Amino acid sequence: MKRPVASGIAGLDYLLHGGFPAGASVLVEGAPGTGKTTLGMQFLYHGATVDKEAGIYLTFEELPEQIYEDMLAFGWDLRQLEKENLLRVICISPEILLEQMMQPEGLFEQIVREMNCRRVVIDSISLMHDGLDAESRKNVYRIRNILRKLSLTSLLLREQTDPERTEITYEHYVADGVIRLALQKHMEKYRKRTLEITKMRGTRILEGEHVYRITDKGIHLIPALSMVEDRGLRKDVSVVPTGIARLDELLCGGIASGTAFILDTNSKANYKYIMGSIFAQRLLAGERTISMVPSISTLFDSKRIMALFGVDLLEAVEQGKAYFLDHFERPAPKGFEQAVIQLNHVSDEEYHQYLDEKLGPIVNESRDKGENWFAYYDLNTMFSERGKSFVKRFFAEEVNRARAVGLTLIILCNFAEIDDETSAFLERTCNGVIRTWVDGAYQYLQVTKSPHGRMSEPLLIENIAEKPFIRLI
Ligand SMILES: Nc1ncnc2c1ncn2[C@@H]1O[C@H](COP(=O)(O)OP(=O)(O)O)[C@@H](O)[C@H]1O
Ligand SMILES: [Mg+2]
Fold first, then answer.
1. Which end of the chain is more exposed for a tag (fewer CB within 10 A), N or C?
2. Is the confidence at residue 231, as pLDDT, over 50?
3. How far is the CA of 146 from the centre of ligand 1 (A)?
4. Dmax over Cα atoms in the chain, in whole Å?
5. What is the pTM of this model?
6. Domains in the chain, please, with CATH?
7. Nearest residue CA, atom 5 of ligand 1?
8. Are the CB atoms for 309 and 243 separated by under 8 Å?
């Protein structure tokens, strides 16, 4: 595959996995003032100065002098590049351009060859056709074919007359890619500029509206969902896979030992498999586990789900690898009795001391042997059984205590049922957040916080027949 052609905007190249596909004709549309000319020139300026690729800017309305003048504001000395034969700004009428382009060995082709031109910007394609009749449509198609034949990577700028109406026009079908620039009202206070890639041949698109600014160095785009890297995390910590392939990729291998993750879910269906897969993997990795039995399911359910993942929970119990905390007095499967710590009679005041007495000796003894512990904490049950103030008062402390003894923690909760302030507090306290939600008939998953600092895009959850019973797309 040919190397992608860098756009000259770092954030955009990130979204494009390196740049535009070589030889592609990309439609760039937006209302006047959104930055099409700036983007087009930045593409050519970067090509000429960094990649030493010559470019041509074809304009139908503005005079080269005016463009030189405007671009100096970004520190781009276009005249100098013209002298070095790395750039041409050509003001021409659409009719003559078309005529010259259509001629084999015509003026356009001559200039392209003479300069060894690799990049072209046409400002604007809207003026190449003055209607929707078949003949003017064909012009767009012809131009794309000529640009492609000459292996030119090109940006076709398109003036959007009515930004409210994002109609699909003929150009969208003909172009290899479509980028939409917009200026939107945001929170009634200020306007934000956004860029969205709606099409790009042969490239996996990072979906969404990405915010950019026009600075004194040109367009600066910050991809949505990117965060500052958490450099505090040690590189040598071990990770245990979640067993869900795509999720492990996003988490750089799995959940790092000694970290705390929140699994935010409001759907009853799929979290069982996410949790089940994570839990089974920890047991298979030889870790010892403590889990809170949720109010809405029982140890019989846990045993059945572990069996689906190839883990015999009774065997784990017998080996002292699995302990359970239960807030309810209820039957447990045969053989589980000694592994269940009953909390229903324990008051809030006694809670921590009681747990320390019950679990402390077991955890300490095994830590001396270098064994790792994993805990599954059900915040929904804690909220319903102990109340919000108890959670707020002790949660951070519990997470810190768990981390201090090297415990890996997964906390199940439902942000939708708790207030913003509390959920922000929970997010801050943890190293990672995996969110799931239902939209219509679909369920989504997104890593919104991770120890590596990257957020993921939202992924669709698909149910499958084999382990781990879900797949992220
Ligand atoms: N040096 C600069 N700093 C910040 N913004 C600028 C600068 N120069 C131009 N702009 C902004 O860029 C916009 C013009 O962009 P332009 O590329 O000409 O848009 P379009 O071609 O889509 O009409 C204007 O709205 C202007 O406010
Ligand atoms: Mg313009």
1. N
2. no
3. 30
4. 90
5. 0.65
6. 10-222 (3.40.50.300), 239-472 (3.40.50.300)
7. 214
8. yes
